[in-house]
Amino acid sequence: MPGSRTLTVLTVSVIVAAGFTGTALATPPGIPSESTARSELAALTVKADGSLDGYSRDKFPHWIDQGNSCNTREVVLKRDGTNVTTGSDCYPTSGSWYSPYDGATWTAPSDVDIDHVVPLADAWRTGAASWTQAQRQAYANDLADPQLIAVTDNVNQAKGDASPDEWKPSLTSYWCTYAEMWIAVKSRWNLTVNSAEKSTLTDMLGHC
User: Fold this and answer.
1) Spacing of C-alpha 178 from chain mean position
2) What three-state secondary structure class fits 103?
3) Structural domain of residue 164, as residue ranges?
4) d(Cα 84, Cα 19) in Å, to the nearest integer?
5) pLDDT of res. 138
6) What φ, ψ does residue 6 adopt, rounded to 5°?
7) H or E, element range at 94
8) 96 phi and psi, to 5 degrees?
9) Where is the signal peptide (predicted)?
10) What are the two backbone dihedrals, phi and then psi, of residue 26, each rounded to the nearest 5 degrees?
11) Which of 29, 124, 130, 202 is least enclosed, having the fewest CB within 10 Å?
């Protein structure tokens, strides 16, 4: 259940923040293989999305303190960037970020957003509306699963809260990985998928 993940996720988050090195990880953690993703997709509950009634981003507190003067956004910027250096406040002072959604590379952190792979609003519609605030906070700051990734800011904004049947990365070469990440997050947080979403994810796995 999502509640059982809260302590684990936050503990892993602190470990990641404390373990910064000069080597950037190429991808978020926990991306499953194609075969595992197909199995996880088959096991997801298929149902129509729920309502957005009552939704607010404030109900998913994010970019929380992760220790070492770092918040969640700064942890991901460090993890996903190349040759990233930071000031005493953990904010990057130099580095570069490759956005796998569109293939762009940026050298200013202000040009980079941290995308929730499965958006907060989508999570609300597919199960998170019934979670506690603590569970939603853990989800919004999940560093243990492939839920957070540094990408071009306007690409993230164009995605909004869309599911894969409504929006995909412009680089078709990333569709497989994107589908694997999306499925993993839905599986690990017990979220549902609608029929169009499941069909699209199946098609995207065909690019693996």
Assistant:
1) 10
2) coil
3) 2-205
4) 14
5) 98
6) -55, -55
7) strand 92-99
8) -140, 155
9) 1-26
10) -75, -30
11) 130
For residue 200, what pLDDT is reported? 98
Show Cβ contacts of residue 196 under 8 Å, excluding neighbours closer than 6 positions: 163, 165
Q: Contact 179/201 with Cβ under 8 angstroms?
A: yes
β partners of residue 10: none
User: Residue 174 carries which DSSP code?
Assistant: G
Using an 8 Å Cβ cutoff, are 188 and 9 in contact? no
Q: How many residues does the chain have?
A: 208
Determine the residue type at 141. N
State how many domains the chain has.
1
Q: Which two tokens stand for residue 135?
A: 């569970």
Residue 105 to residue 152: CA distance in whole angstroms: 8
Q: Specify the long-range contacts of residues 97-101, CB closer than 8 Å, at least 24 apart.
A: 97/150, 99/150, 99/151, 99/152, 99/155, 100/27, 100/149, 100/151, 100/169, 100/171, 100/174, 100/177, 101/151, 101/152, 101/155, 101/156, 101/159, 101/169, 101/170, 101/171, 101/174, 101/178
